[in-house]
Amino acid sequence: MKRSRFFRVLAAAVILSLLMLAIPITPALGVVGITLSVTSGPPGAVITVSGTGFDLSTSGQAWFDINGDSLWTSGEPRTLFTTTATGALPAGVTLTIPAVARSTYYVRVSDGSSTATATFTITPEIAANISTGHVGDTVTVGGTGFAASTTVTIFYDASSVGTDTTGANGTFAGFTFTVPASTKGTHTVRGKDTTVYSPTVNFIVSPDITIIPTSGAVGDTVTVSGTGFATSSSVTIYFDAVSRTTTTTNSSGTFSATTFAIPEASRGTHTVKAQDGSANNDTATFTVSASITINPTSGPSGTNVTITGDGFGASRPVTITYSGTAVTTNPPSVTTNSAGYFTATFAAPVGAAGTYAVEANDGTATATAIFVSTTDATISPTTSTTAPGNVGMSLTITGVGFTPSHAITITYTSDPVVFTTTSLADGSFSYTLTVPPSLGGTHTITVTDGTITKTFTFVMESNAPPIPELTLPLVDTKLKDRLFEWEAVEDVSPASNPVTYDLQVSIDDTFSEASLVVNQTGLAEATYTLLDEEELESTDEEAPYYWRVRAVDAASNASAWSSPSTFTIGFSFEFTGWVVWVTMVVVAIAFFFIGLWIGRRGGGGEYW
To answer: How far apart are CA 215 and CA 514, in angstroms?
Structure first.
């Protein structure tokens, strides 16, 4: 009886002891729960899941419940595991948040008999393909974790740069924008759907300059533009570390259209630098090429041409050619200075009119300019209204640039006197002509090879010769031997073209056409004897004849008429025909009776 009671007491004590041992363990085995390393984040975030109260050493799974149906579905991220001997989740149970729209989702863990849950809130996030660059660069932005199928606005700093639309999973990709004008430093990019902004990503702007053109010759104008500098700052533009100009940025750190001329510089690459007051700077390269200029760019053979070269090698000898042939220059030896510069002169060689290449070469670099050789002709001497020419003078016409080895025709005035010559093989010619008789005044001389024509003006003197002085017959005297005489006059024309004279005899002092009885022109001598057919009728002092003379030179310049003089013609008859015979008979009879009378007187009255 006592023994039985003892065992009952002992059994009760053992049971109580076991219950006391089970009290600390029971809660752990009876309550399951999980915690997440983070409870919110963008898609792509990796979270670590911790949990206790699961079946001991039991296989289980953790998953991201996209569908919200408490069951794992293919496509939902999950991780398989085995609980520890204490029913806890092992270390390293992680899940990668999938691309889903912005919302709150469940993370679930199950050991097959018990399931624990925790919430995870999706937040938006954006990413840019580049994080540094310049104003004007193109940036591509993608985003996840935004609201589904909604418009997302992208901001650069506080300004919108465009919008995109998310898909059902809250994602967009491939949105691009151009970095707007902004100062040097860090700027932010972020996206916003209907209510929520994403965290920002940084974009760092660096100074950047652009030069136009990037290559050229000394003296060319270069335009410099810049972005990404300090706001409202003075900017200095340098060429090879030498300041060339300054400008000022605007509030966005931008400057534009600043120009300078490329200074003397040798051939090759040179540095253009822009630097603001905060030492922010950027550089670009400008390649100087050899170049030449010529002045003038056109003219006839023999024209003195000045050639200037830049951008050649430093301290290099330079050869100058014209149409491939070296020319004589002044100075005779041409060498560049330390900046690749030179200048010289040369005479354009004789040749046909056309386009010729002028080339400068320093042994490495070559530059070319074009000289247009033109046709030219000169006349010597030149004449003018104040310095006219005269008949018989020599004129020399010289031409260059005409058709080589070709007939040259020289025509004097509109009533043409033609001279011909032939150009040489280099297109030049020289011809001396004697000015033919022609009227006083302006005449045109034309020179042509059939294609090229040049004209000159020749001014023939218009000065009349002196008025001749009348000598015979004297005033109011009888004309003897039909002879008229006057003083010879001299003119500017040479002896080969002496003056001529015009003689008029009139029955009155009007010298009208009806009153003229003698009208001789072009008399070479200062005398004239009337022809038989010009015999004048006898007259007396009451009705004398009038006569006058004028001089005419080879240019047809006529003097004024001399003052008229008068003369008379006495009675006369001609001893011709029967008159001669009758006169001879009468004279013979007269001599007979005179002789008879003389004989009678000498013989006492008797003459037999």
So the answer is: 91
Same domain for 560 and 481:
yes
Pair of tokens at residue 506: 């009139």
Final residue of a structural domain among 429, 460, 491 = 460
pTM higher than 0.70 for the full model?
no
Q: Counting every residue, how long is the chain?
A: 608
Q: What is the pLDDT of residue 19?
A: 42
Same-domain status, 348 and 404: no
- Tell me the β-bridge partners of 152: 164
Q: Give the pLDDT score at 27.
A: 40
Domain co-membership, 551 together with 532 = yes
Q: Which among 295, 294, 286, 283 is positioned nearest to 262, based on CA atoms?
A: 286
- Which pLDDT value is given to residue 540? 85
The neighbour count for residue 144, using CB atoms within 10 Å, is: 28
What pLDDT does 583 receive?
56
- Any idea which residue has 């013609």 for tokens? 569
Q: What is the pLDDT of residue 414?
A: 66
Q: Which two tokens stand for residue 10?
A: 């002992």
Backbone dihedral angles phi then psi of residue 532, each to the nearest 5 degrees: -55, -40
Q: Which of 331, 347, 374 is the last residue of a domain?
A: 374
d(CA 526, CA 416): 31
Strands 304-310 and 242-248: unpaired
Coil, helix or strand for 580?
helix
One domain, residues 479 and 558: yes
367 and 454, same domain (yes or no): no
What are the distances in angstroms from CA 500 to CA 438, 463, 469?
Answer: 14, 15, 14
Residues near 477 by Cβ (< 8 Å), separated by ≥ 6? 567, 568
Residues of the chain scoring pLDDT < 70? 1-30, 414, 492-497, 571-588, 590-593, 595, 597, 599-608
Q: Residue 16 has what pLDDT? A: 46
* 94, two tokens: 């992680």
Domain span including residue 394: 376-460
Q: How high is the pLDDT of residue 4?
A: 55
Question: How many structural domains is the chain composed of?
Answer: 8
| One domain, residues 451 and 505 | no
* Cis peptide bond N-terminal to 199, omega within 30: no
> What is the token pair recorded at 230?
């300090």
